[in-house]
Structure formats: C-alpha cells, structure tokens
Design goal:
190 residues; mainly alpha; 7 helices; transmembrane helix; membrane; transmembrane
C-alpha cells in the first residue's frame, strides 16, 4: 500500500522511457520504414511501464530502510519479452533483428550492478565494461540514421546513449547498499 506512489511514478517514468526508446527506433530507421502495430504497446510500452514500476517499488523499499528483494535486480529482463513473439524470435536467429532487446537488458543489468558497488572489485570492472560497451553501442547506432556529423545522426546517437545511461542509473535502485565491515546493516541502508 505504501509503495503505490513510488510504483505509479516509476511506471509513468518507465512508460516515458519506453516511448522515447520507440522514438529513437523511428529516428534510427526513418518514419517511412517504422511500423506501429499491436506489438508496439505490448512489446515496448507495457514492458517499459512494468520495469519502471518494479524499479519504483525497489526505490520505495530502499527509502524505508529495507533491502529490496534480489529478484528486482532482473527487472530490466522484462524488455526481452519481445523475443517471446515467434516472428521476432525467428528473425533474431535468422538475421539478428531483435538483438537490441538483449543489448538493452544486458546493459541495464550490468550498469545497475556497476553503479551499485563501491571500490573497483573485478566484478564491478567487468560490469562497468559491459555497460559501457552497451551505452557505446546504442550511441554508435546513431550512425545508422545518418552521419554523426548530421543533425539526425547526432540526435539519434545522443538519444540512444542517453536512454541507456538513464536506464543503467535506474537499474541500480534494486541493489542493496553494500555493507561495510563492522557497520550494522541499519546504518548503511538508511
């Protein structure tokens, strides 16, 4: 009950994020090649709202001084729901289309982990590398829309990279605060 405002705000933010991602897709392929069907709300917008709501719940739990359930760390995996569509799954295997959903999931999960750690343990370095490559990939894909020196190419690159960076930051919310040796959990999580 007390998590509802955070969940609602998170869902609205997630929906806005997914809408911006859909806008990025239109910029990427062009308005003539972009199609809107039942898949757009079901496979892009709805998962965005669900991921945002789950991350909002994690933020609410953290704000109350408790640790969010570990399963919320995998919230961005809901973006891979598009691969449940047989046509998209077939396209992924045959020509690689649909792999963007996997890039989004892997980048978000790795970015959330990298941003939630302290110091530079090997796992954080690996996560930061994967997340950095994912953000760079989404940024570099802007060149598919046009040269990066053109307005359309630069805008597409900037939007893609920014969307992934924002999702990485949001994906850090479900991670519990790291416990320092000798410091009680209650002090660290507040």
């Amino acid at each position: 009950m007390r998590h509802r405002p955070h969940v609602a705000l998170g869902a609205a933010a997630g929906l806005a994020w997914a809408g911006a991602l859909r806008g990025w897709m239109v910029l990427l392929v062009g308005a003539d090649a972009s199609q809107v069907s039942w898949r757009t709300p079901a496979l892009v917008l709805l998962p965005g709202a669900a991921v945002g709501g789950l991350l909002g719940r994690a933020a609410s739990i953290r704000a109350s001084g408790r640790r969010p359930p570990r399963v919320l760390v995998l919230s961005p995996a809901l973006f891979a729901v598009a691969l449940l569509d047989p046509a998209i799954a077939r396209s992924l295997v045959t020509d690689g289309q649909g792999s963007g959903a996997l890039v989004v999931v892997v980048t978000a999960v790795a970015g959330g982990h990298a941003l939630s750690c302290r110091g530079w343990p090997r796992t954080r370095i690996a996560s930061a590398t994967v997340a950095g490559l994912g953000v760079a990939t989404m940024t570099g894909m802007g060149a598919m829309a046009g040269p990066l020196t053109s307005a359309r190419g630069a805008a597409t690159a900037l939007l893609g990279g920014s969307l992934m960076a924002v999702l990485c930051v949001a994906s850090a919310l479900p991670h519990a605060a790291e416990v320092e040796p000798g410091v009680p959990d209650e002090v660290v999580t507040r």
